[in-house]
Automatic annotation (TrEMBL):
Residues 181-341 form the PurM-like C-terminal domain. Pathway: Purine metabolism; IMP biosynthesis via de novo pathway; 5-amino-1-(5-phospho-D-ribosyl)imidazole from N(2)-formyl-N(1)-(5-phospho-D-ribosyl)glycinamide: step 2/2. This is Phosphoribosylformylglycinamidine cyclo-ligase. PANTHER family: TRIFUNCTIONAL PURINE BIOSYNTHETIC PROTEIN ADENOSINE-3, TRIFUNCTIONAL PURINE BIOSYNTHETIC PROTEIN ADENOSINE-3-RELATED. Its EC number is 6.3.3.1. It is found in: Cytoplasm. The keyword Repeat does not apply.
Length: 364
């Protein structure tokens, strides 16, 4: 074995991993993470595993655990290009936690994972601070996380984020297609912008058009980069408030409005959505790239971030609750018996009912 020994002393730091920078990042983020911890969290920051007192589950007759995992996609490329990293964390929380809220589950905890080419403590702390602030706003402990330095795999300025959340719902309170009925109202809750899906399309449009992220767009009243970094709106609190009178929720993420709403429509019923105004950012992207309407509908949320399917008699109360939470909302459509006409039926592995987008969307 002697012949394989090299007189050079190669350190972990020379391999591109700076453990001291990682420790510094933890120190910078520690207080933000701790601020999300409620009375159910056992221990502090830095353990091998996060611990949560789950005694609350004893109050449930038949508790079901709900879980979801996701990332932010190529939106991180814009954050990196503009060197703005404190908003992307809310995108992550919205993408993950609001998926479990769809079934009526109360979030119990969230964890995060950041992979980067080089640990820049201040940058990592900004990302985690954004995650923590969002978690605190919906009373969800950020119970654990990991920052991994991957030199040679990612560039020094590159990173990606992912997260997972776990929640609980009473078995007989699960929301979904089994509850949806003919005549239900479809209540739309406005998105804050593009949220965190479709950024590969958006970035390609800007690239081909030769637009920089610093370009000011009069129709938006800001630069295109700032508009694209507006964080994903959080619907967690208001959806939990509405859960007792709702039949289903639909989080409008990848695949657009119709494909996601179809996931909560039972066979034999059709959701007809016809009323909404598309925000300016979507028209900018559509016009700049000549993007076909079908691609817009199948990729972007077009101004609706969450849909609530509720009995018609609860429509106004649902709208009022959303507006009270500073989320614009309106009656966007109705659930009908499926007439067999043209519609999107089944999506993302779910073989269920249909969705038809009708009318002319104001703004496109």
């Amino acid at each position: 074995m002697q012949q394989w020994r090299n007189k050079l002393k190669i350190t972990y730091s020379q391999a591109g991993v700076d453990t001291q920078a990682g420790d510094r990042a933890v120190e910078l983020m520690k207080s933000a993470v701790a601020s999300t911890h409620n009375a159910n969290v056992i221990g502090g920051v830095g353990g091998f595993a996060g611990l949560l007192d789950a005694s609350e589950l004893l109050k449930y007759r038949k508790p079901l655990l709900a879980t979801s995992t996701d990332g932010v996609g190529t939106k991180v490329a814009i954050a990196q290009a503009l060197d703005i990293h404190d908003t992307i964390g809310q995108d992550l929380v919205g993408m993950v936690v609001d998926d479990i809220v769809v079934v009526g589950a109360k979030p119990l905890l969230m964890t995060d994972y950041i992979a980067c080419g080089k640990v820049v403590p201040e940058r990592i702390a900004d990302i985690v601070r954004g995650i923590a602030t969002a978690c605190a706003s919906i009373n969800t402990p950020l119970l654990g996380g990991e920052t991994a330095e991957h030199p040679g795999l990612l560039g020094e300025e590159e990173y990606d984020v992912a997260g997972a959340a776990t929640g609980v719902v009473e078995a007989d309170s699960v929301l979904g297609p089994e509850r949806v009925r003919e005549g239900d109202a479809i209540i739309a809750m406005a998105s804050s912008g593009i949220h965190s899906n479709g950024y590969s399309l958006v970035r390609k449009v800007l690239e081909v058009a030769g637009w920089s992220y610093e370009k000011h767009v009069d129709d938006l009243g800001t630069t295109i980069g700032q508009e694209l970094l507006v964080p994903t709106r959080l619907y967690t609190n208001v959806c939990l408030e509405m859960a007792d009178r709702a039949h289903a929720f639909c989080h409008v993420t990848g695949g657009g409005l119709a494909a996601n709403l179809a996931r909560v429509m039972p066979a034999g019923l059709l959701a007809e959505v016809s009323r909404w105004e598309v925000p300016p950012i979507f028209k900018v992207i559509a016009d700049l790239g000549g993007v076909p309407t079908a691609d817009l509908e199948g990729t972007l949320n077009l101004g609706i971030g969450m849909l609530a399917v509720v009995p018609a008699e609860h429509a106004q109360a649902t709208i009022d609750a959303s507006v009270a939470a500073d989320i614009p909302a309106w009656d966007a459509g109705v659930v009908r018996t499926d007439d067999g006409g043209e519609a999107l039926r089944g999506a993302k592995g779910v073989d269920g009912g249909g969705v038809r987008l009708t009318g002319t969307y104001t703004g496109l």
